[in-house]
Amino acid sequence: MLTIGQQFPKFSKIAVTGLEKGKEFETITSDYLVNDDNVWTVMFWWPKDFTFVCPTEIAEFNKNFGEFRDRETRLIGASTDSEFVHAAWRRDHDDLRDLKFPMLADTSKSLAEDLGILEPNEKIAYRATFIIDPTGIIRWVSVNDLSVGRNVKEVLRVLDGLQTDELCPCNWEKGQETLTV
């Protein structure tokens, strides 16, 4: 699995960015992650569309979209399902209709494989979360077992710590003092 300090892999994938007919899909590439505007990226993966734990996480990321935006951070959700399955799921599920971030479709499973997060039996993505800095370097990785949803507040807490570029003690939260050496 790729880890902290490594360059996020190159990719070009179709994503669902809305539900308006004819404007549902856009191509997102790894170039989107690298920028001079100091914009970070959080890419989070779920195993399968039309399941039970996954929409709770996606909806929670969406509820916190403003928190990520306030931190100059883009959100990208991803799975190995197709863009058509993503679009159908968004239309079908009340909590997913108004998503403010793209749902990336890794149907070839190549990005999940490059990241090392492809579950070996079903060939679906683990519940992985990557925080990527504006230079395209992975700064944090978290992977949950398929049955356990992640904690979005913890993703925000770690993002806050990374963005201070200082030493942050255990349980540190934004607004608290960092360590001086």
- The count of β-strands is 7
Helical amount among residues, as a percent range? 25-40%
Strand order of the largest sheet: 2-1-5-4-3-6-7
Biggest pleated-sheet summary:
7 strands, mixed
CATH-assigned homologous superfamily:
Glutaredoxin
If you consult CATH, what is the topology? Answer: Glutaredoxin
Q: What value does the Rg take, in angstroms?
A: 16 Å
Based on the coordinates given, report the CATH architecture.
3-Layer(aba) Sandwich
> Which class in CATH terms?
Alpha Beta
SSE-based structural type: alpha/beta
What overall form do the CA principal axes indicate? globular
Proportion of beta-strand residues: 15-25%
Number of helices: 5
How far is the N terminus from the C terminus? 32 Å
Secondary structure elements and pairings:
Elements: E1 12-16, E2 25-29, E3 40-45, H1 53-63, H2 65-70, E4 73-79, H3 83-92, E5 103-105, H4 110-115, E6 127-132, E7 138-144, H5 152-164
Parallel strand pairs: 3-4, 4-5
Antiparallel strand pairs: 1-2, 1-5, 3-6, 6-7
Active site: 54 (cysteine sulfenic acid (-soh) intermediate)
GO molecular function: NADH-dependent peroxiredoxin activity; thioredoxin peroxidase activity
Catalytic activity: a hydroperoxide + NADH + H(+) = an alcohol + NAD(+) + H2O
Protein described:
This protein is an alpha/beta fold. Helix content is 25%, strand content 22%. Strand 4 (73-79), helix 3 (83-92) and strand 5 form a beta-alpha-beta unit. The chain has one domain (6-164): Glutaredoxin (3-Layer(aba) Sandwich). The chain is built from five helices and seven strands; from the N terminus they run E-E-E-H-H-E-H-E-H-E-E-H. The mean pLDDT is 97. The protein has helices spanning 53-63, 65-70, 83-92, 110-115, 152-164, and strands spanning 12-16, 25-29, 40-45, 73-79, 103-105, 127-132, 138-144. The chain starts with 11 loop residues before the first strand and ends in a 17-residue tail after the last helix. Strands 2-1-5-4-3-6-7 form a seven-stranded mixed β-sheet.
